[in-house]
Amino acid sequence: MNDALIDELRLRADRLSAQAMDVMFKRPFWLERFGEHGRKNSYQDSSFHMAYLLEALTSDEPEVIRRYATWLRGLLNSHGMCTRHLDDNFEQLQAVISREVASASAAVSMLQEGRNALVYAEGPGRALQLAAPALVRAVLASATSLDADDVADHLSYLADAAELRHTERLVKYVQFMQGAFARRGAAGRERELLQAIAAALETAAPETREAAAKVLAAALAEVTP
């Protein structure tokens, strides 16, 4: 029933996946963090997303993209990325396909299956993921100089670190961001951001505060005043 959609997506897959990444790389963070080599890998990854989307649509089996999303999340996390980065890529693919392809609802829905799979089923990571939108709003309300994407990324790294017990990955990200902010002429911004997150967590549900406490403390210990 989706034959026409599948044919069009297959024909335009490379262009659509590249358009999604073009949007993401408008944000300076991506080149700062991963460089040109990372850009090449990211565009390749986006093409893989399209391949798995096509496989899921062809087989009419959402589990294909669910398994792919959760497997890839683990791989990318080990290479310094957070869950939100993969979710953003899926979201940009949804936007591009919706805009560029007629009658694309089945593809958009299938990508949503992948995004939904990125929400942890239980545990501290889930608590932080579900609380993230409200926490971003609270942080931005208290510290208007901060960027929403930076705040959301920090919360995603925090959720991953709490869930996967890899605090050192959050610490490496925080160390990188401290240097990145300094290079942008905003020395001290990383501590400001982490302290704003800590303050926002004080009003969060107990399970959310508990999930974040240890890993956030480890991150704060790494930043200079």
Characterization of the model:
The chain is mainly α. It has 2 domains: 3-117, Orthogonal Bundle (Globin-like), CATH 1.10.490.20; 124-220, no CATH class. The protein has helices at 3-24, 29-59, 63-78, 83-100, 105-117, 124-142, 148-164, 167-183, 189-201, 206-220. The model has no long low-confidence stretch (mean pLDDT 92).
Structural category: mainly alpha
> Mind summarizing the main beta sheet?
none
Please identify the top-level CATH class of the largest domain. Answer: Mainly Alpha
Bulk shape: globular
CATH superfamily of the largest domain: Phycocyanins
- Under CATH, the topology of the largest domain is which? Globin-like
Overall pLDDT = 92
Poorly predicted parts: none
Q: How many domains make up the 3D coordinates?
A: 2
What CATH architecture label of the largest domain applies? Orthogonal Bundle
Total count of helical runs of at least 4 residues: 10
Strand content: under 5%
Estimate percent helicity: over 70%
Termini separation (Å)? 59 Å
The arrangement of helices and strands along the chain is HHHHHHHHHH
Tell how many strands the DSSP assignment holds: 0
Task: Describe the secondary-structure layout.
Layout: H1 3-24, H2 29-59, H3 63-78, H4 83-100, H5 105-117, H6 124-142, H7 148-164, H8 167-183, H9 189-201, H10 206-220
Q: Summary?
A:
This protein has ten helices and no strands.
